[in-house]
Amino acid sequence: MTTYKLTYFDFDGGRAEPVRIVFHAAGIEFEDNRISFPEFSETRSNFRFGAVPVLEIDGAAVTQSNGMCRYIGKQTGLYPEDDLQALYCDEALGVVEDSYHKIVNTIFLEGDELKEARGKLVDNWLTAYLKGLDEMLTRGGGEYFSDNRLTVADLKVFVQVRSLLNGTLDHVPADLVERLAPQLLAHNARVDSDPIVVAYYNSRGN
Ligand SMILES: N[C@@H](CCC(=O)N[C@@H](CS)C(=O)NCC(=O)O)C(=O)O
What we know:
Layout: E1 4-9, H1 17-26, E2 31-35, H2 37-43, E3 54-57, E4 60-63, H3 65-76, H4 83-104, H5 111-139, H6 152-165, H7 176-180, H8 182-192, H9 195-203
Glutathione is lined by residues 14-15, 50-53, 63-66, 97.
């Protein structure tokens, strides 16, 4: 039997979260290796590219969360078979990845500098991002990003948008999604109530 070990930070979100949800949904056993931020700092050099998530498959390490989403999605029927739908799915995975990079540029700022950087982020990139995701939902028929059903793209977007809705980023208004992307807001509620997602968070005791 193939063994899986997924190393990531110890919180219910971020780049590894869609992979965790899919493993759980598919009933695939995996070691959910959650590390603290200090632990990461101390052991960073052990990770290829000095970053997580890292997925070890039968002991061989692989990086890049979107590749992991596609890999595990293909194995579990949560990635489209049709090439065009797969492209739509990849577009959503890719733009969320872009969003993490944009946000991380502001993460270590403080005070007025942080406020200014986040204000610019909200007015420029985040606005375009949320509107773009909304448009992509329209293209897909309004409910999902591709294949007219839940795929790994929906899980990746869900995890990221949920953190925006929770107001986890200072100076990013929690109602931004509601104001700019009403379909995306509905999408978040749809995915949040999907049996796959409900079962996962029940298993986490959330
Ligand atoms: N493209 C990579 C990015 C990985 C990445 O930047 N991970 C962050 C955590 S979510 C990290 O480990 N950052 C540590 C650092 O860059 O110092 C992926 O999608 O897996």
